[in-house]
Amino acid sequence: MANTSTNQGKGFENVKNIKINVLDVAKELQRKAEAIQKKAGALSATIKLRDAEFAVKQEVVSEEVAPQPAATEEVAQPQPRAEETSLPEKQQPAKEQEKVAEKAQPQKQQPVAKPQVDVADTQKQQPKAEAQPQPKKEESVAKVVTTIENGREVKTYTDEKGNVRVRKFLDTSSLRRPSTPRTDGNATGKTQRPQRPAGEFGKRPQQQNAFGKNTEADSRPSSSRQQPKRTFAPAMDIPRAEPQKSYGNKNKTKEHPDEKRISGKKALLTRDYSADYDEDRIVRKARTKKTEASRPVAVQKITNAVVNSQEVPIKTLSEKIGVPVATIISQLFKEGIMKTINDTVDFDYAAYIASLNDVTLELKMDKTAEEIIADSEQDDGLENDTKRPPIVTVMGHVDHGKTSLLDAIRHTNVTGGEAGGITQHIGAYTVTVKGEQITFIDTPGHAAFTAMRARGAKITDVAIIVVAADDGVMPQTIEAINHAKAADVSIIVAINKMDKPHVEPDRVKQQLTEYGLLAEEWGGDTIMVPVSAKTGMGLDTLLESVLLVTEIKELKANPKKRATGTVLEAKLDKGRGPVATILVSNGTLKIGDSLIAGSATGKIRAMFDDKGRKVKSAGPSIPVEVLGFSEVPQAGDYMYVADEKLVKKAAEERKNKLKLESARQMPAMNLGDLFGRISEGQLKTLNLIIKTDVQGSLEALKSSLEKISNDEVKVRAIHGGVGGINETDVMLAKASDAIIIGFNVRADNNAKTVAETEGVDIRLYNVIYDAVDDVTAAMKGMLAPKFKETVLGSVEVREVFKITGVGTVAGGYVTSGKAVRNGKVRVYRNNISIYDGNILALKRFKDDVKEVAAGYECGISVENYNDIKVGDVFEIYQMEEVAQ
């Protein structure tokens, strides 16, 4: 049934479309016909006016008028009764059908009197006339009289009763298509779909009024009002809406029953739409994707790989040789090396791992930024053709008068500013002698500053070894000689303190010969000058000797080159930031230059000479104090000026290199010592946090303290820095159980408060000797105590007693020395030691005694030992701690 209804609906839809097309064509034809008819009417009116003038306005034309077409009669006549309409076609007489067909034909003989009938209405009404033929009616023939009044035609006729009526015709141009009749009174304001007729071209559907009752044809007479005719195809059949239940002004009807719910306008428009009958619809069809079979990817075997660093990260090695990281770590583990993905391995190990996986690994070092800078300096084409001042380093033992000698040369007092009269930092000074400049570098003489003195010797041209005439050659003097020889610099010996009585310079010369320094007057090539810093004796001779030696060397440089030099000292100034003392070796250092020293970079903001004056540039062999570093550089770092981008790249390379070196210094864990380190637990470590005022002092103090380490206690500086002690240092010391040592610095208020609260020990010093002594004393407290065994006496067992609750008691005789109650006892039987323990009790008769002297008898019980026999010998002894 549902399929039949659907097919009918589709058929009606097609008929509807065809009728719409026909109507469009008919309207176009009607428009053209009206245009022609207007022209003919205008011509006819002109002719009639002329005829009317001749007939003196009284010409009557009589004619027989045929019945109007069915369409006109239906509009003019009332609607027939419902029972007449619903009669089947087969019950109507054939004659009546023939007469209806005759009525439907228009009269062609009377064009003037023909009414203007809408072609569209005629087309629409013809199917209705076929579907519902009208009953037979007696048509009366009336006489129509046409008159002309006021220039227009007026037609009159006489009806059956004899009344004269004016005949009016409809103006087809003013006719409009009748609106669709409302089928349900409840659907006020809503769009309703007309119901499907019961059969094809059958009866009209019965409608419901506002109260839901059927409006049957026989229930009440038909209205005299003309009902509008349906001029389009019948609508589809839809379910009837439920009658509305009204209670006052409240609507209790469900608006959208669950089984009839419609969502959205799109669903309403497409509810009865079928794409099968829509010829203009473009249907998009989903394309079926072709499933391609997965093709096996050919894995390319790696046979050769190249790395550009000596230390190869595990992850990089994995990517280069195409081996998973887990496999590499496993292979290293089999070799006894424990590594993780973030660790690095030496190139040799990396090449071995690559060979295990049939890959040849090559090392090709890329050109670093430093190498690029070095090549640019070599390719600049500038030669060293300008004479430069000599650089002289004053070296020697502590308190032999090095700084005092420089004071005499500079005519200034520098030693007064040093703590305890000892030079703590490297000082660089420029002195003019006979019109020529000489740069002096003063290095500390204490053994703790060995590294600083070594740096000073490397950058110098001449080394002056100061030896006190009264003391002679000392350990630091020998060390200074060795550094000067290693640096391959000329050595001049200054025998100081010649103003003291009973001094013997020849004895000093004799001692120096043991270390390869032979005086010129003795046939050697070493210049030895007796001087006195207090009286100034021999200073001129010393300076002339310096100029003589440097003149032979022909020291030259080029001020036009980019500056290079060495960092002599660096510190963190509270107001100025990182400050470095730089000795320019070649070129000219200017304000605004980008420079690098170690891993520290910067741009020069200001420079000061040795006298504190602000300068704009510094030439070769000139020491200056430089401001503008991003961080405090390390003392002894090589400094050079380059392009800003290259400087930053070189600094990054140096930082990475330092990381690799620090990782390499840490001992790698292997299977051989893994369990030994876990079970060791005997190594004691003294953790230190060192803060100093300058970088050079930090290195010196750190190296001095690390030298104190021994096999039992290890001194480790877990943190070191330049500047005052702050709260962060205290918290680090608390977490690491460390001692804070400050050299020429102090702790701020917050650090002091936190240190007192947390119990952190802060030690402040201004002389390095005191710091070393205190740390040495602290280490002694951590050393395992050493004991010496002292034999106190000997007891011979002569009787054995067994006492209930006490055990075995030996009755003995003290043969030598004495027996003490808190001593230790060693049991000998046949001169063989069988037990070593403590004395539990010592009695004489029934009294407890502290000791029993030789020649007396006593009773002795041994702790945890009862196997005592007659003839055993007890050796009484004590363990005494030995001072370290």
UniProtKB/TrEMBL annotation:
Residue ranges annotated for the Tr-type G domain, each copy included: 387-556
Region (G-domain): 390-538
UniProt biased composition (Low complexity): 103-134
Keywords assigned: Cytoplasm, GTP-binding, Initiation factor, Nucleotide-binding, Protein biosynthesis
HAMAP family named in the record: IF_2_B (MF_00100_B)
PROSITE patterns assigned: G_TR_2, IF2
Organism whose genome encodes this protein: Candidatus Fimimonas gallinarum
Biased composition (Basic and acidic residues): 92-102, 150-163, 252-262
Protein name: Translation initiation factor IF-2
